[in-house]
Write a structure and sequence with these properties.
- The protein is globular.
- Strands 1-2-3 form a three-stranded antiparallel β-sheet, with no helix packed on it.
- The longest helix has 9 residues.
- It is about 25% helix and about 15% strand.
- The mean pLDDT is about 85.
- The protein has about 110 residues and is of the alpha+beta class.
Length: about 110
């Protein structure tokens, strides 16, 4: 995943070249402490109702020591179903819920 600021013109150009469905979401940054924040993604369009909360850590040890808030339902760090590249392959939440593959299996395209 790459995050870069884009002009409207650059966005429209890249959108034409995208594979799969374009994902629309609003990201909220929620400070936790001086060095960490929760990135809360609220999805729109065909993925309406899907919400992710992500926290980035400097090390695996720091991640393991983190106490998730009660409103974090489950850790999906290694579950490919929650990658943007994977989500873009589905027309909506119902299709995503019906998917029967292995959520931990990865390949070069996901």
């Amino acid at each position: 995943e790459v995050e870069l600021p884009l002009s409207k013109k650059a966005y429209e150009h890249l959108k034409e070249k995208s594979d799969g469905n374009v994902i629309s979401k609003t990201r909220y940054l929620i400070p936790i402490d001086a060095t960490h924040k929760i990135e809360l993604d609220v999805f729109h369009g065909s993925l309406e109702g899907l919400v992710f909360a992500e926290v980035e850590f400097a090390s695996e040890e720091e991640s393991a020591a983190y106490q998730m808030p009660d409103w974090f339902l489950e850790d999906v760090t290694f579950d490919k179903r929650y990658r943007n590249s994977f989500l873009s392959q589905f027309s909506g939440l119902e299709e995503l819920r019906a998917w029967k593959g292995n959520p931990l299996e990865t390949n070069e395209q996901d």
